[in-house]
Specification:
Layout lengths: L2 H7 L6 H18 L6 E8 L5 E8 L7 E5 L10 H9 L3 E5 L19 H13 L6 E3 L2 E2 L1 E6 L1 H12 L3 E7 L5 H5 L7 H9 L15 H13 L4 H9 L13 E6 L7 H13 L4 E6 L10 H15 L17 E5 L13 E5 L9 E5 L6 E5 L23 H4 L12 E5 L7 E14 L3 E11 L5 E2 L6 E6 L3 E13 L4 E7 L12 E14 L4 E2 L7 E5 L7 E6 L26 E8 L10 E8 L4 E5 L6 H8 L7 E6 L2 E2 L10 E4 L11 H12 L8 H8 L14 H13 L5 E5 L7 H16 L3 E5 L3 H7 L2 E6 L2 E7 H5 L4 E5 L6 H8 L4 E7 L2 E6 L4 H10 L6 E4 L3 H8 L6
Parallel strand pairs: 3-4, 3-7, 7-8, 8-9, 9-10, 10-11, 28-33, 28-34, 31-32, 32-33
Antiparallel strand pairs: 1-2, 2-4, 5-6, 11-12, 12-23, 13-22, 14-22, 15-21, 16-20, 16-22, 17-18, 17-19, 17-21, 24-25, 26-27, 26-29, 29-30, 34-35, 36-38, 36-39, 37-38
Helix pairs in contact: 4-5, 15-16
């Protein structure tokens, strides 16, 4: 809630002395915060290896000499992809050079997959240029103090540059590969879907539609692999020769390895190989398992940036990074965990667990569990069709598809009948937190070699299974042999009473499978599960409560600190009915008999006997016509209006003005309000200071990414458009990553692209275990992002429950595509077995299923190269809404 909103709600207060307080506070804020340090950006073309022109940007802030940092972008990006991080690093005291790699953006040349005489030699020329800059600190003549960071493709070139240019002093490679051959052909199995996505991003040169911007040798290698479904010796040699693994002994500089846990392209084992190689060379190394990856997941860009700065401070500036097991710059090992269990504050947030040394994928402790015995039989279908569906490689971050698995219960994956077998443990007697790669002995009877896909499941007492991180590990074993098979590395807690399951399937959508039909008979031995007991939760483990006093005018002043007491762990917490006592539970919101009638309103009630409950992980849509009582309900929820009867409880605690539990609530109601002469950044800083909570608890970088205001963030708010103010207000509501987020008409003033981004932000936010309540008149947006609905009319509850129950789902699915679908494609889809009808509509395809599941439809659409943006039940929420409120007749 903004200061201006508090002003409107407290006009009755005396303002004389308060105005003096406001003036003093604003003067202090301007002096203390000041304007952000100005960053100068210089644009120029530099000459790379072989005369190739490289488009670069150079960032400086302030004066004096300083170390330099080169930022390399990911595959398909350009120098502009790194602009925000470059500006932040410049403000942190570095000379920062970004560039578009050859073959990308405005740079010349062709893509050579980080060839030594191409992309890596280009970095050497960039280091030469930095060595001539007077403001760049030097180790000697022609030798600048320089670090390098990059993600994915850019992370690999930072490793290769460190190996081949001794002037590179420290690196931070992120979500990248060590051995590109093993990344694209693990166990010799072709990762065809990812390879196709990877290659297609370079096919944008109309002068060469066959090879696009790739060098001939790279183009031919991919085409041979795509046709054969495997890598020939020449392709293997090319990929190995352009991988950091080929230059491993030369990488002897401080290295911070950031690897994503949600990544089917470059999984954790690639980061593990980097860490082991650098450590063997005697250089400091730290490993950070972040929440996200190439398949989406949690966004930790702000935290990773801060850790990158600390790493470079420690190893380029010679200090400032803090002590750590990696020679400064933080802990030797950190893993991000999600959920609220185990924290004293009860905050459901991304948390860090750290250890003094990197344990590797085998952990420091191992637990062996027996799997149910017996030989199981599965088949490989002819042509590998239909393939199993573990996840959607490369589409995890695509708008609308990131929530597809949850919407269609694809968390348990899908496999054609007879195409998978499962081996399950007995219920665990105690909780077990697995950190690393589990391993199991498999004996396979088959003719020749068998290709299988191994997956790890967490099976709850009710029988429902979930797959941590949606990852599958390909397994290629000789028939008749017993092999030790390593499953995908994860960090996951198995609760007591849960079972561990290993599933083996014969096909997977992301990989090339043998075309010949085959029968495999499989027997599994005991399962070994690694753990790291010494991991200790550090950041995010304790979040104090703060109470707010309410001054007479515009500003919130922090009045008192509420120290929370430890509460019962999530495993033992149940849902409690609201009572007279102020006892907490884990239900985010309970509304019981809520009633409010305003003075002068006669017999009309704004809200009357309203009751509903909102659970964790839900995105609840609060719907109703004007005058239904939605805003009054939200104002009572925030403690701004006292109900006449009934009560609201947030996490079991009664809502009252200034109640400590309101610190777990983030809200945006009745439009944005900011101090117009301050910048967007200064408004956010002022708001957070007013809460009295520590700056580290704000998670400001995540909120700023949600705002997506770019350089406008440092302009006065009076220059903002309505949409920009709206986005800033939503980012303010998300400061501190509250457990319960309440938004009133969040998409007002946003354009269609921003509305889609907002929808995905809310879906991802709830997926972390938090709860979102959205009040909106845009029914189409509500039905796409909300899981549950509460419909009000004339102050009363009309309906509540899951969206599907209220709208009445049928067997129609809407497949959204970026471009209109022609009749021929619709007819082709309609001809699929199990599809009743398919017709083109404005949004894409409307498909009625008969004997086909939603998962099978996704498989077929991907096979037919239909560019799916989003898929979901075809709901007529508008019709249901009008029916519930009487067709609009009031």
């Amino acid at each position: 809630m903004t200061a201006r909103q508090w002003l409107r709600r407290r006009r009755w207060a005396a303002v004389g002395g308060a105005l003096a307080l406001v003036g003093g506070l604003l003067t202090w804020t301007a002096t203390a915060a000041g304007d952000p340090v100005a960053v100068e950006r210089q644009e120029r073309f530099l000459t790379g290896a072989g005369g190739v022109r490289l488009d670069t940007s150079y960032y400086l802030a302030g004066g004096g000499d300083r170390p330099a940092v080169i930022l390399a972008h990911g595959f398909g990006g350009t120098k502009d992809s790194e602009r925000e991080q470059a500006e932040r690093l410049a403000r942190a005291g570095y000379a920062v050079l970004t560039y578009s790699a050859r073959g990308f953006g405005a740079s010349g040349g062709r893509i050579g997959l980080n060839a030594a005489d191409g992309e890596v030699a280009d970095v050497r020329r960039l280091v030469d240029w930095l060595a001539a800059r007077p403001e760049v600190r030097k180790d000697g003549a022609g030798d600048p103090v320089v670090g390098m960071a990059g993600g994915s493709y850019g992370g690999a070139v930072s490793l290769l540059a460190a190996a081949q240019d001794r002037r590179v002093d420290a690196i931070v490679p992120s979500i990248t590969y060590w051995d590109l051959e093993q990344a694209l052909f693990p166990q010799g199995v072709f990762k065809k879907l990812w390879a196709g996505i990877f290659f297609s991003r370079g096919l944008t040169d109309p002068r060469d539609p066959r090879c696009g911007r790739f060098t001939p040798e790279v183009c031919v290698a991919f085409q041979r692999s795509a046709v054969a479904g495997r890598a020939d010796p020449a392709t293997r040699a090319l990929l190995r020769g352009r991988s950091p693994a080929a230059y491993g002994p030369g990488i002897a500089v401080p290295t911070l390895v950031v690897q994503g846990q949600t990544d089917s392209l470059f999984p954790l084992d690639q980061g593990d190989a980097i860490a082991r190689a650098v450590a063997a060379n005697g250089a400091p190394v730290a490993v950070d398992w972040a929440a996200g990856g190439h398949d989406g997941g949690g966004d930790e860009a702000g935290r990773i940036h801060e850790r990158t700065v600390a790493w470079f401070d420690a190893h380029l500036k010679g200090g400032g990074g803090g002590a750590g097991g990696a020679g400064g710059g933080g802990p030797a090992f950190r893993v991000t965990r999600t959920g609220g269990a185990g924290t004293e504050s009860g905050e459901v947030t991304l948390r860090g667990a750290t250890a003094a040394r990197y344990p590797g994928l085998g952990g420091t402790s191992r637990t062996t569990v027996a799997l149910d015995g017996g030989e199981r039989t599965l088949v490989n279908p002819a042509g590998g069709t239909p393939p199993g569906l573990t996840g959607l490689p490369g589409l995890g971050g695509t708008p609308g598809l990131s929530a597809l698995a949850g919407r269609f219960d694809l968390g348990a994956a899908w496999q054609a009948p007879g195409g998978s077998v499962a081996f399950t443990s007995a219920p665990l007697k105690a909780p077990l937190h697995v950190t690393g790669a589990a391993a199991v002995d498999l004996t396979v009877r088959a003719e020749g070699r068998a290709v299988l896909f191994a997956k790890l499941y967490d099976v709850a007492p009710d029988g429902r299974g979930t797959m941590p991180r949606q990852l599958a590990a390909p397994v290629s074993v000789a028939g008749g042999a017993t092999s030790r098979v390593r499953l995908p590395a994860v960090d996951h807690r198995f609760d007591a009473g849960h079972r561990v399951r290993v599933v083996l399937s014969s096909t997977d959508l992301g990989f090339a499978s043998p075309a010949e039909p085959a029968v495999y008979r499989v027997r599994a031995g005991a399962l070994t599960l690694p753990s790291v007991p010494e991991l200790a939760v550090t950041d995010g483990a304790t979040v104090p409560w703060w109470t707010w006093a309410l001054p007479g005018v515009a500003v919130l002043v922090a009045a008192a600190l509420w120290v929370t007491r430890g509460r019962a762990g999530a495993a033992g917490g149940g849902v409690r009915a609201a009572g007279s006592g102020d006892v907490g539970d884990e239900v985010p919101l309970r509304v019981s008999g809520l009633t409010k009638r305003y003075a002068g309103g006669g017999d009309a009630y704004a809200v009357r006997e309203l009751s509903f409950t909102v659970e964790r992980g839900q995105v609840l849509g609060l719907l109703g016509p004007n005058g239904a009582g939605k805003t009054t309900t939200l104002r009572m929820l925030m403690g701004l209006v006292r109900p006449d009867a009934g009560e609201l409880r947030i996490f079991g605690r009664a809502v009252r003005p200034g109640a400590p539990v309101l610190s777990r609530l983030g809200s945006f109601v009745e439009g944005p309000g900011f101090l117009p002469h301050l910048t967007g950044r200064q408004n956010l800083d002022l708001y957070w200071r007013a809460t009295g909570r520590p700056a580290a608890d704000a998670h400001r970088e995540q909120a700023l990414e949600i705002a997506a205001l770019g350089t406008a963030l440092d302009r006065p708010v009076r220059t903002y458009s309505q949409g920009m103010r709206q986005r800033l207000a939503i980012a303010q509501a998300m400061l501190g990553l509250p457990d319960l987020l309440v938004l009133d008409e969040p998409t007002n003033g946003l354009d269609p692209g921003q509305i889609r981004e907002m929808r995905d932000v809310l879906t991802r936010y709830a997926a972390t275990g938090r709860t979102v309540i959205v009040s909106s008149h845009l029914l189409a947006e509500v039905e796409q992002c909300c899981t549950h609905l509460v419909v009000m009319d004339r102050g009363r509850l009309v309906a509540s429950g899951p969206v599907g129950e209220i709208t009445g789902d049928d067997d129609h699915l809407l497949v959204a595509t970026p471009h209109p679908v022609d009749a021929a494609l619709a007819a082709k889809v309609a001809g699929l077995p199990g599809v009743g009808t398919a017709r083109a509509v404005d949004e894409g395809l409307l498909v009625r299923l008969t004997a086909m599941s939603a998962a099978e439809l996704v498989v077929e659409l991907v096979r037919m190269e239909v560019p799916v943006e989003r898929i979901g039940p075809y709901r007529r929420l508008e019709d249901a809404f009008l029916t519930l409120i009487g067709g609009g007749e009031r």
